[in-house]
Amino acid sequence: MGDDLQANVSMYKLQLQQVEDSLTLDPENEDLLKLKTDLQMRVKLLSVKSSTTQAV
């Protein structure tokens, strides 16, 4: 299960980087800004979950 969490975190980090790259071209794009916030939250939540899972 830990490997799945790590894979998801990696995927979301990659997507976040792509969104941030797109925001350099269009910094006022509300859809991209919302997506960035959503991805940051997912990375944070999954990282915490991964840490908790590893500690058990």
UniProtKB/TrEMBL annotation:
Q: What is this protein called?
A: Uncharacterized protein
